[in-house]
Amino acid sequence: MTYGYKIAAALAGSVLLAAGSFLLSYVPAAESSDVFRRAMLGSAAGAAVVACGLAIFGLAYLGTTKQRRAETQRVAQGREGYAPDRLDMRPVKPSKFLYNMALIFVGVVFVSSAAGTGMTLSALLDMPARIWDYTTQMVAGVAQIPDEEARDAWSSAFDAMLESVAIAWIGTIVGALFSLPCGILAARNMTPLAIYIPMRFILSIIRAVPELVFAVAIFIPLLGVGPAHMGGAMAGAFALGISSIGTLSKLISEAIEGVDPGPLEASRASGATHVQMIRWAVLPQVMPEVIAIWLYRFEVNIRASAILGALGAGGIGRLISPPNGLFGQRPYDWEAIGITLFVIIAITMVVDQVSGFVRHRVIHGATVRQKRRGFGGRGRKDTGGPGGHDDGSGQGGVNLTEARAEATAAR
Amino acid sequence: MTSMRQQRIPPLVAKQAGSPEVTAVVEPSTSAGAPAAVQRPERPRPPLQSYLLLALVAVAAFAFFWWTREDTSVLFIPLGFTTLWAPQWPLIGFAVMLAVLVLCWLTRTGAMAAFGALAVVIMSYWAGASIHFLDRIVEVPQRLTTGNTRDQLLGYLNPDWSYLLFSNVAGTSRPIWGEWLITLCMAVVATLIGCFIGLLLAMLASPVSSPNKATSQTVKAINSVVRSIPDVGWALLFAAFIGGTAYGLGALAAVLALIMFNIGIVAKLLGESVDAVALGPLEAADAAGANLVQRDRVAVLPAVMPSFVSYSLYVFELNIRASAALGVVGVAGIGGELSRQIGRMSQGYENVGAILWALVLVVLLVDLLSMWIRRKLL
User: Fold this and answer.
1) B181 touches A at CB < 8 Å
2) What CATH number is associated with residue B293?
3) Quick count: other Cβ atoms within 10 Å of Cβ B229?
4) CA B227 to CA B234: how far, in whole Å?
5) Could you tell me if B138 and B188 lie in one domain?
6) Is the minimum CB–CB distance between A284 and chain B shorter than 8 Å?
7) Predicted-assembly ipTM surpassing the 0.85 threshold
8) CATH superfamily of A148-368
9) Binary contact (A116, B181; C-beta < 8 A)
10) A86 or B252: which carries more pLDDT confidence?
11) Do B257 and B231 touch, CB atoms closer than 8 A?
């Protein structure tokens, strides 16, 4: 397929898209749903712009037809044509036509979605003044010498945040208890196929269900809703725990699949049973990584518990979200909100630091310290490889585990 | 202590030195009869002082739990001549802590690991006590068998699909499926903007690609603050900043909140990818005389592009879930409808059931889609 045909096809596609979405914005469905009509009009507009651009580009391309034909003939006759790349012997860049078209299509989707949400961007104009106003009030609330009211705000924020930490901890414990056996059962080198496949299937279903669904559908009716003594906190903890099982087991099974097979063979050769093999050959290898994964999930759970709290499942979310929280009262009490946000940020960061330190300690042990052997002003290490980078925080390997954890959580 | 150690070491060394010939002689005879007891070197005992310190920690935790307990159940310990009493749950917790310590001592675990185990027990006790773990657990069987809860759980199993497909949001002429569409739209917009800003911040935050140390540290600090505030918090904050009320607000607050949420995730994860980028291309770019922007464009960006695409797809999936949840605090999308239906749950659970099942379905589809794109691209 030559370049001209590609352009023609893309042009036809974008014209079709524009016309199709324009027509779709007049079907009966669009009459009832404003969102759909706006999205379709947006997509029509975006596709029309793309079509115009492609048409101009195509015309320009058509204009060069004669020159290109002459060029082809000259090369066919064996004479050297003008080719700047021959001069410095660099390979010609491959055409990225499909890639570019895909990017443009993403742009059209973006325009269409932005139109569909119906955002009124004029609201953004007033925002800086308000942000400044409210932020000064919040800072004043945090910085003042606490009077009676502010002391109430501090203590209730601390209580709610500690409740969030407790929810996240219980959730992590529940997830950890179930995830180690599930992870072993979902590791290909530990388990026969007949168990491995159903286990993987169950785990991927658990991963597909949002925590919100577990909380609303199962645990709030089962355990109660509202503040901790009404059972809301327990509902949040169990929702987090059950949904942690999916991710944790997946990560643990991947860690187990990556173990060094030497000890496995040695234990098998010396007559170990399956359980003994797991106990003496697998667990010693993976345990540091497993503990790091658990701790990482604890940090994730603290953040996730806030949104469950907005549904009535305990923790800091209950304190801030309407109708009963700080943002539900009509003139906002910005000083209390500032204090609460400060407590959230402070405790989250402290927990992150502690957990990061423990993870580092568990993975690298007490004696190993990464020394900076950088040269020049940049201060980076001259040895590459994973964990070879160091930004002074000294947590290279741990951060890689974390990035992998997040990346595989998606799969 | 030291004298004991010195006594113990010589026989061990002698046995290890002599072991090859011993085993060579002994082996044929043992294969027939009972295996000979081979003396292996034992693990050294951990220092007693640190274990005493740990026991002290356990006692302190016990005192704290006694001090802060809320229920008043008391355990009596008859001792013949007198009867001691102690609060029930703190005492049980203390027993568990001591059992963990004894177990660690018997297995000769190092002091740090024993401290870790003790800390886990203490944290679990504290967390369980502050969310009333046992009180709620014992109620579960009763709730399962009687009344409302059972109806509710059964209601989820026959969802009302016609509600989801054909009916309108209460009080308006907007159909329910339009709310799904707006959720998707919000997720797309927020993902594209948020990931782009996150990419820029990640480049600035990593010492590999940022102009100087001060910039990278500042951006890192800002990023960790952005990450600390949960997405619900961002949604409520932006709702106030825009000047509307939290209810009936439209999509702008949700999109801005999701953008902040995405910036946090992408800047953190991608910052680590940038940190770990191969140093060869960087040096080549430096040697060819590239300035900072050219260097980042040529040596860093192509290296982190695959992980950027991967994280963006992941973030898109997260956005679908989060925007469904954010509706709970009053912004547009399916979450708003979900929270309205939860509010009127006394009239029946079929509507909530339909929304939840559809949510699972949509997340599953998005998951499959992103898996397909990832396989195509990477």
Assistant:
1) yes
2) 1.10.3720.10
3) 21
4) 10
5) no
6) no
7) no
8) MetI-like (1.10.3720.10)
9) yes
10) B252
11) yes
